[in-house]
């Protein structure tokens, strides 16, 4: 993910270690913003200590990894199968750890108006609403049948949307924490039902439209009713599934990555293809070193810039040439 200031990129690796790249402020980059034509610096404090999650003795390769960053970029909540760690982003020091598994945390989301309120999805299908101020769980939400794979707050509608490996979406009131409605994503025609498929959710910039992503489809819903608005289905002849999709910061585009290695840019208003990014920009040239995009992060203030994390641990920042200005005509 990018930091909220747009001046750094943070990555969590499968070994439970975080890396942070910062772009320095200089004459050509007075605001210190991330840019593809500038070389970032891998940052760490003088102590040399890296932010490393507690793993409870389990192999982190088999753990669920997730993190969430406070609005002011000062604090990081992260987990890799063990306890949830709270880090100081300035010193990389661990402030505290909470909630020793089981159940293991599978997704974290911070309340947009109060970052002390944290929604914690778990592998036992529950969602715990944790209050960091009082160090207590305020309530536990139960409606899913499988692990939680996504959480998204809307600060306009006062709701939390959860998604699970059961392909279910649930809308919860953040005032009463009661479930308002739910909906199941249906497998596209000609495809068998996805078994324990990850379903990720993200709100549009307007905080009312919801992007739901599975390995074979992208669906736009209207919240809170969860009325389906648009749907894009991966062609049957496609050689790889969808690995990730995210809105650009202005929500006019959707960046989509695939297991086959390619990245596409869709129009958020129609789900039409705008362009495909040349894989030679980010994939290794040696065909024996097979890698593909695993996650995509959109810059928080530059609509045509995004970062991509690969399965070979590479992290790339991509943006159009200055002469073109954007990814599509």
Find the structural class using helix and strand composition.
Answer: mainly beta
* Main sheet summary: 4 strands, antiparallel
End-to-end Cα distance, whole Å, is 27 Å
pLDDT averaged over residues: 93
Largest sheet strand order: 4-5-6-7
What is the CATH architecture term of the largest domain? 7 Propeller
Unreliable segments (pLDDT under 50, ≥5 consecutive)?
A: none
**Total DSSP helices:** 0
Count of structural domains: 2
- Looking at the structure, the CATH topology of the largest domain is Methylamine Dehydrogenase, Chain H
* H/E element order: EEEEEEEEEEEEEEEEEEEEEEEEEE
Strand content: 35-45%
Question: How are the elements arranged and paired?
Answer:
Elements: E1 8-12, E2 18-22, E3 41-43, E4 65-69, E5 75-80, E6 84-88, E7 94-98, E8 105-110, E9 117-122, E10 126-131, E11 136-142, E12 148-154, E13 159-164, E14 168-173, E15 179-184, E16 200-203, E17 209-213, E18 217-222, E19 227-233, E20 242-247, E21 253-258, E22 263-267, E23 273-277, E24 293-298, E25 306-310, E26 315-318
Antiparallel strand pairs: 1-2, 2-3, 4-5, 5-6, 6-7, 8-9, 9-10, 10-11, 12-13, 13-14, 14-15, 16-17, 17-18, 18-19, 20-21, 21-22, 22-23, 24-25, 25-26
Write a compact overview of the structure shown:
The protein contains no helices and 26 strands. With 329 residues, it is an all-beta fold.
